[in-house]
Amino acid sequence: MTAIPGNRKVTRKDVARYAGVSDAVVSYTLNGGAPVAPATAERVREAVRLLGYTPNASARALKLGSSHMIGVIVPDSTNPFWAELCRWVETVARSKGFAVLVLNANDSKAIRLEYLQTLASRQVDGVLLTGEIDALDVDRFNATGVRWAMLNQSTTIDGALGVGVDLAAGARDATAHLIWHGYTRIAFIGEMADARYGGWLSTLTEAGLAPGPLFDAKFTREGGYAAGQALAASHDSVDAVFVSSDMLASAVLRALHEADLAVPGEIAIASFDGSPESEYSWPALTTVRQPVQDLAAKAVAQLLHREQPPEDEQLLAGTLIVRQSCGCP
Amino acid sequence: MTAIPGNRKVTRKDVARYAGVSDAVVSYTLNGGAPVAPATAERVREAVRLLGYTPNASARALKLGSSHMIGVIVPDSTNPFWAELCRWVETVARSKGFAVLVLNANDSKAIRLEYLQTLASRQVDGVLLTGEIDALDVDRFNATGVRWAMLNQSTTIDGALGVGVDLAAGARDATAHLIWHGYTRIAFIGEMADARYGGWLSTLTEAGLAPGPLFDAKFTREGGYAAGQALAASHDSVDAVFVSSDMLASAVLRALHEADLAVPGEIAIASFDGSPESEYSWPALTTVRQPVQDLAAKAVAQLLHREQPPEDEQLLAGTLIVRQSCGCP
DNA sequence: ATGAAAGCGCTAACAT
DNA sequence: ATGTTAGCGCTTTCAT
């Protein structure tokens, strides 16, 4: 009497008939919409078990106007940092009964918007967005009618919910640590549009140090490798480098090793993210850990409970994890 | 007149009224269910645009009995190999109009089954499953009533759709390459339950070589690191090692470097997966690349088009990528 | 404590 | 070429 694949799907009506009650009572039993006599409830549960009944989420979503799903749009779920963040989002959302749709926007604003619309049509209850955002984007996002919030936003912007990590502060911590080590010619690898660039620059300036060379790199392994090679070529004028992401840094490491440059001996490194990968590179990376779990939890809470957090809680702090690539023992 | 957030959702009926046609015509225009006069179609499309209408996917799913979603259950989407595979699944599925729900089962069979049920209740059109599977599992999976197939299955099993990579053959290729280099004491790091273990073992035996030491390791970075340390401790009796995954291998690399052992000089390495990470480790890993894109495409096709492939196409071949960790220049 | 029935937004068979 | 309508499976109001 259990469900046999290929059989017609068993619906709530089947359960009702089998238990000798009305459809409503099944609903009451399952969702607690009204009191049900213990004996009846037991009969219903028994029928559910026997028939192998599972509620139809589409029907439920249609009726309730909520799919109990949220969407997340990241630049690249293959980047360990985003992978970890998405996994936390999934974990947090699941614990609240929500499923998660992850989409890759490939660093494209156009794709991000397109996917947001796709998600909207799928009736998701909210979407977590990543990447740069300006006032125009806010309007476009709002036009979809779907609730949204920024995940890991880099700058707070009016009318936009979201949490992020204080990238500039993190970069300052990392750079300051490098300076503390006594390095004076500290390079930068990453995107200049990124807040980490500003953090690096201001820290050097305030310390009275001339900013070291600057290697523009997209957030890809190829980009990191190329920047690493460029860095190796000019290693005479550099004794340390701040790299904007662990993924980039591990590729930089490879380029430096290839050029037979000792890390941290000839060039010290501090990077950003605190991804699992950073702990197992050689040497282990000194890095600014982003509080991914917290980020995920806060973002989901904002999205689902419409919690507008106080402004000063929209930027979380990263924590410097000191390992060996900076020169610490 | 465009959608303003907070407004009542605009439905197909609104579009119909605005365009001065019946609900059906809107459907015909959008889905091509029946011929529509060009002028009418244009009016409808105009209304859609003006009102910012997006079809309600829940209603559609309820009506059609298909949510146009599939699920994927992996052990750990944070592992670069799974991350890449999931991304391909998403890409392939998207191109066919399907969205993807990714769930992490944490290497637990119980969780895998639980999630399969969750997905079933969400009316997904199919689920891609990973990990070990036996006849009992097949029954349990079938009992959910949802269509499923194995993604990256290690062994074909009766009554189960799916594609996988010939792990044993891949491990043989890698081990053979190590032997070709002249190494004679070749260790193994990975899980013994895995087909790669058999491939490693048989290749050594057939070559008349005594199997080197064997370090059991779960597929985690911690596991790889511990195994690497054990390997380093017994490096006198080892000149090469086959590691079952890139993620493991990169942690092994770290342990070896820490022990000041030269790779490939003192211990050569060949590993498995061909993840992006493997190219940018130091030294770059010689590894067996799994055809992730092909895997994803074939699995999705089987799931969606109910294509039962010929038996000999259920196991795809990996390709050995020769880089430096094996001793090649 | 339980039942009857309306209606969520959509598609498709049938009628015109 | 276009309109009318039933019904997908569910929740929930209102009766009983």
What order do the helices and strands come in, and which of them pair?
The structure is a homodimer of 329-residue chains.
Chain A lengths: L11 H8 L3 H9 L6 H14 L5 H8 L4 E6 L5 H16 L3 E6 L4 H13 L4 E4 L5 H9 L4 E4 L10 E4 L1 H14 L5 E5 L4 H12 L7 E3 L4 H13 L6 E4 L2 H13 L9 E6 L2 H4 L6 E4 L2 H14 L9 E2 L2 E3 L8
Parallel strand pairs in A: 1-2, 1-3, 3-4, 4-5, 5-11, 6-7, 6-8, 8-9, 9-10
Antiparallel strand pairs in A: 10-12
Helix pairs in contact in A: 1-2, 1-3, 5-13, 8-9, 10-11
The structure holds a DNA duplex (16 and 16 nucleotides).
Greatest interface (CB-CB under 8 A), with counts per chain:
A-B, 58 and 58 residues
Biggest β-sheet strands, sense, barrel of chain A: 6 strands, parallel
Describe the global form of chain A.
Answer: elongated
> What is the helix fraction of residues of chain A, given as a range?
40-55%
Helix/strand order of chain A: HHHHEHEHEHEEHEHEHEHEHEHEE
The structural class of chain A is: alpha/beta
The CATH architecture of the largest domain in chain A would be 3-Layer(aba) Sandwich
What low-confidence regions of chain A span 5 or more consecutive residues with pLDDT below 50?
1-6
Oligomeric description of these chains: homodimer
User: For the CA atoms, what is the radius of gyration of chain A?
Assistant: 26 Å
Task: Determine the strand fraction of chain A and express it as a percent band.
Answer: 15-25%
CATH classification, class level of the largest domain in chain A:
Alpha Beta
Q: Helical segment tally of chain A? A: 13
Corresponding CATH superfamily of the largest domain in chain A: Response regulator
Q: Output the strand order for the largest sheet of chain A.
A: 2-1-3-4-5-11
End-to-end span of chain A in angstroms?
67 Å
CATH topology of the largest domain in chain A: Rossmann fold
Calculate the mean pLDDT score of chain A and round it. 93
**How many separate domains of chain A?**
3
| Total strand segments of chain A | 12
